[in-house]
Amino acid sequence: MGWAVPIMMLATCGLSWQLGKTRIGKLLSPIMVVLILAALLANLNVVPHGHPSYTWAAAFLVPLAIPLLLVQADLKRIARDGGRLLVVFCTGAVATMVGVIVATALMSLGPEQGALAGVFAATYIGGSVNFVSVSQLTGFSASDTLGAALAADNVISVIYLGLLGVAAGNEALGRWFARGGVHAETVTQDQQPAAKVLSPGTFLALVAAGVIGGLGYLFDWASGGYSMQLLWITLLTVVLATLFPRQAAAMSGAFPIGSMLLLPFFFVIGAGADLGALTGSAMQLLAFAAVIVVLHAIILGAAGRLFGWPLEYLIVASNACVLGPAPAAGMAASRGWPGLVSPAVLCGVFGYVVASFLGVAISRVLSS
């Protein structure tokens, strides 16, 4: 029975990928499909909310997928798209901080309110990695409220990621924002010929991804193990893609395979949404988190409208803020925005760096 959960996870990801080619699936994207299916399976007790295979999926598949998604990225693309997306991302981070301050003013969460504000500020600027780090830095990791906060965060994250996926395919919403963006360079999985996916270049891309992932782990370990493996992987991939553009261009099929390898990670996010845990204090924390994320989206959307930012930039930057680099890169990949995959990872990793500092800072200010 030990293999039942990973087999179910992989089967669900495969089904989601195929359903993503249908008319409804294209509207939702494979990410949204796998999130819905995983949440249903977990809350119907078909699969557990936590399992060792989930850790394996996040620890091994994501570092392998990122180089495949970035294999044809170069510094020119990062300079063109990354700088602009970073501005949008920083605006989203400021919007999160405003949301935290407003939510704290509207609701009373008791003596742990400062720590909770810091934890949610960190997780909605950098992702779940910062949720864990700030909870430890503030002493909140020993609190009885930690489980409820995690449950609320997971549910809000799944709902928001799903809404971003729907927004990405909404043409009416897209008309409210600037046109152009990365549409000229976009591709979809349907435009990737099967013959190319199975070419020798694909094998070379997989080997290169494995080597880069391993080097990223070694560099992270050698530098003190600060959980910056994705930063090292991104840096190595971008440098190699820039130095050897012709070889990178020969690695056909890397992009769709990287997109597929990220689906188990989204399965883990969906399965972590424990609706049964949303009782008592968790419901109040759910409302607290919802206020933060809603204000984040409203403020960022208003800024996008004001400054003429394309919808895809807003979606990817917001995804990087609220969920982190892997979900942001995965959504950019699944929507056919390869020009934003590398900037999404870079912005998300930047969020990793600054979110813990901002979370601790706002925790101390609101606790004083």
* Overall pLDDT level: 79
Number of strands: 0
Quickly count the helices.
17
Gyration radius from CA atoms, angstroms = 20 Å
Shape type: globular
Distance between the termini: 51 Å
Sketch the major β-sheet: none
Low-confidence stretches: 183-197
Strand content: under 5%
* Fraction of helical residues: over 70%
Secondary-structure element order, N to C: HHHHHHHHHHHHHHHHH
Which structural category fits the helices and strands? mainly alpha
Secondary structure blueprint with pairings:
Layout: H1 4-19, H2 23-43, H3 52-70, H4 75-106, H5 113-123, H6 128-137, H7 146-168, H8 171-174, H9 194-197, H10 200-222, H11 229-243, H12 245-249, H13 254-271, H14 281-307, H15 311-322, H16 325-334, H17 341-367
Helix pairs in contact: 1-2, 1-13, 2-7, 2-13, 3-10, 3-11, 3-13, 4-5, 4-14, 4-15, 4-17, 5-6, 5-17, 6-17, 7-14, 7-15, 10-11, 11-17, 13-16, 14-15, 15-16, 15-17, 16-17
Brief digest:
The chain is mainly α and 368 residues long.
What does this structure look like?
By secondary structure, this protein is mostly helical. It is 75% helix and 0% strand. The chain contains 17 helices and no strands. α4 packs across α15. The termini are far apart. 53% of the residues are buried.
